[in-house]
Design goal:
Elements: H1 2-16, H2 19-24, H3 27-72, H4 76-158, H5 162-243, H6 248-272
Helix pairs in contact: 1-3, 1-5, 3-4, 3-6, 4-5, 5-6
Length: 274
């Protein structure tokens, strides 16, 4: 999950560097900037809170394992020590669960806003593409008219009748105007085309970010579920130890639950730190 968070932050930073987005869809860099400043640190804090629980568990495990051995020998004091260690873990897992839930909610809020941003970006791309098509059509019409006028001028040049001479002068002026208009239109079209190209590149990055954020949301949901389950299991373990007698049989039962719990914490460790 750590690697996923880093990837999302890198994509978000890449989006912020796209000047074309600031010009065409300013909401995108604004929302992404807020994500980098707020949500991404929250996600890292979430990992830190979960790692604090795991670290506390590792420290408590040795003491609890030792207490179980003495408990199996009939020591009620050892059972009480195990209970005390378990109760100490509760606050850590509660903090982790609270952080998990906060990040999950904020990630979803960002994703909803970003979905709207992506729709806006798609609309801008369509609009620019339509403008390019309109300019192209206009250039084609102007080129057709220019070709016709040049053909007429060529005819006049071989038939120098006075009327046609005046008409030719007018056509020459019109042709020059058309040529200038075509040059300007091409310049404008090239500018739109460059903007469109830059936006397409930026759009590809926004799509990657959107996909990665969704993956992070899914991971956050899984993490929240895991810590909630682990929190419930700690409560059950505490109740089991609190109500148990200082006998070998009950210590063995708890030890089996404890081994299962250890496996789940190990899985959690691998999940968040990969």
């Amino acid at each position: 999950m750590i690697a996923l968070i880093k990837n999302v932050v890198q994509l978000a930073q890449s989006i912020q560097s796209q000047d074309v987005l600031s010009a065409q869809t300013p909401a995108i860099p604004q929302h992404v900037g807020a994500f980098i400043q707020t949500v991404a640190p929250e996600a890292q804090d979430d990992i830190d809170a979960t790692n604090k629980f795991i670290s506390a568990y590792r420290q408590a495990k040795s003491a609890i394992d030792t207490a179980i051995a003495a408990w199996r020998g009939g020591s009620d004091e050892a059972r009480a020590r195990a209970l005390n260690q378990l109760q100490g873990l509760s606050s850590f897992v509660q903090s982790a669960t609270s952080a998990n839930n906060k990040v999950f909610q904020d990630l979803n809020s960002f994703k909803q806003a970003f979905n709207a941003d992506e729709e806006q970006l798609g609309g801008v791309l369509n609009q620019i593409n339509a403008q390019i098509s309109a300019i192209q059509a206009g250039i084609q019409d102007q080129q057709k008219t220019l070709a016709q006028e040049k053909a007429t001028l060529a005819l006049i040049s071989v038939n120098p009748i006075t009327y046609w001479i005046y008409e030719g002068a007018s056509l020459l002026t019109t042709s020059q105007t058309l040529e200038q208009a075509i040059i300007l239109a091409n310049t404008q079209m090239n500018a739109y085309a460059q903007t469109y190209y830059n936006l397409q590149h930026a759009s590809a990055i926004t799509q990657q970010l959107s996909s990665s954020v969704q993956s992070l949301i899914n991971s956050s949901q899984n993490l929240s579920n895991s810590t909630s389950i682990i929190g419930g299991q700690i409560t059950q373990l505490v109740d089991t130890v609190r109500n148990a007698a200082a006998t070998n049989e009950e210590a063995v039962v708890f030890q089996a639950y404890w081994a299962t719990f250890d496996g789940q914490v190990n899985d959690l460790d691998v999940f968040i730190n990969s």
